[in-house]
Amino acid sequence: MSKRKAPQLAGVTSIRKMSSSLFEHPEKTSYINGAWVPASSGKLFECLNPANGNPIGSVPDMDSKDTEVALAAAAEAFKTWQKTTAKERGVILRKWYDILEQKKDTLAKIITLESGKPIAESLGEVAYGNAFVDWFSEESRRINGEIIQSPIKEKQMLFVKQPIGVVSLITPWNFPYAMITRKAGAALAAGCTCVIKPAEDTPITALALAYYAHQAGIPKGVLNVVTCDRSNAPQIGKTLSTSPIVAGLSFTGSTEVGKLLYQQCSTGVKRIGLELGGNAPFIVFENADLNMATDGAIALKFRNCGQVSRILADAKEKGAKIVCGGKPASHLGELFFEPTLITGITPGMACYSEEIFGPLAICIPFKTEDEAVTIANSTRRGLAGYFYTSDISQAWRVARDLEVGMVGINESLITSAEAAFGGIKESGLGREGSSHGIEEYVYIKYLCFGNLKL
């Protein structure tokens, strides 16, 4: 498979007040069928730096018409991509990984500009995201079938795994890089082609990934990016979930949007993977190492934060007590908020059951292990749960009883490319990462050879 030439650059994306050459691609275009194209309407929307509200660049405001073009390109590319060998796909993914590693500083700056997270966290996300490309470049060769013992000697029975087809990938703002590589890495390794719809807040990160995918030699139409502003997101989401071209959809985002996409995918009985909202309990038992637990809580609850004025206001109105923080960090800028700790939490408060995107932690006391587990499970969400204990028996009991898909025991940073990421209840369907991440993008075909003279 020959490597294609990089496209001629028509310009440089404007990343104002930081660098004029962070990310080289034709300005005001998105990536469809191996080419940099504008929206068919010619419309654009501005991306803003959430730290100060300043514009950092303009990207196409695409619609369902552009999405259909991208899906058609992915369908055409699937005809040949599905027939590549696992080794060929693995080699190309590895080239993509190598380029992404070389450009990690550039990519981290883009993430910081778009999502507002500190540069150290952005570098961490790039490393985390690149690990998925690395992992799935190797997993492509481990998509194995089975030979079944036939009940009849004249027959031979076997299972093979084949790519499901074109997949839609819809990703969020809070991990704009890693959520793309986690999905696209698995899909491409399996032999699927994809159309990516990044969050309207963070499209430039997705375009950077596409640019370096092109440099790595990923063929035209195999990976496509459709960007849009918030107003066009519903129609594009509907197209990506209802088009007869689409074989499957993977979405990371809110439970409410996930339910809508689930409903829309049902009209075509499509494969769907959902990584939805969580409300992760963090339990500290009396016998725990408090220093370890404190470090874990800070790492888990105060990184990658958005702001929550509404949730905090609701808690204050209903009687919660602010222990520290609770007001804007005006010395840093108008859009910053202090790390906040509140107590006196009751079940009627939004912070008790809703996912909190912000520098806000709540404390709920408990007396027994059973009470702690009951409180932790009193939500329809079930993504992850964490607890700290020095009692090994307690560790096994609580890990078993927490109604979540992932459990951190004396550890808050539990995700990696090797881990199966996903939840239960209303936190989603399917798993991402690990060897199980490939399963979302393949189906099992049963072959029966009959009338054999053995």
From TrEMBL:
<dbReference type="InterPro" id="IPR016161">
    <property type="entry name" value="Ald_DH/histidinol_DH"/>
</dbReference>
<feature type="domain" description="Aldehyde dehydrogenase">
    <location>
        <begin position="36"/>
        <end position="308"/>
    </location>
</feature>
<dbReference type="GO" id="GO:0009450">
    <property type="term" value="P:gamma-aminobutyric acid catabolic process"/>
</dbReference>
<comment type="similarity">
    <text>Belongs to the aldehyde dehydrogenase family.</text>
</comment>
<dbReference type="InterPro" id="IPR029510">
    <property type="entry name" value="Ald_DH_CS_GLU"/>
</dbReference>
<protein>
    <recommendedName>
        <fullName>Aldehyde dehydrogenase domain-containing protein</fullName>
    </recommendedName>
</protein>
<feature type="active site">
    <location>
        <position position="275"/>
    </location>
</feature>
<dbReference type="GO" id="GO:0004777">
    <property type="term" value="F:succinate-semialdehyde dehydrogenase (NAD+) activity"/>
</dbReference>
<dbReference type="GO" id="GO:0005739">
    <property type="term" value="C:mitochondrion"/>
</dbReference>
<dbReference type="InterPro" id="IPR050740">
    <property type="entry name" value="Aldehyde_DH_Superfamily"/>
</dbReference>
<dbReference type="InterPro" id="IPR016163">
    <property type="entry name" value="Ald_DH_C"/>
</dbReference>
<dbReference type="InterPro" id="IPR016162">
    <property type="entry name" value="Ald_DH_N"/>
</dbReference>
<dbReference type="Pfam" id="PF00171">
    <property type="entry name" value="Aldedh"/>
</dbReference>
<keyword id="KW-0560">Oxidoreductase</keyword>
<dbReference type="InterPro" id="IPR015590">
    <property type="entry name" value="Aldehyde_DH_dom"/>
</dbReference>
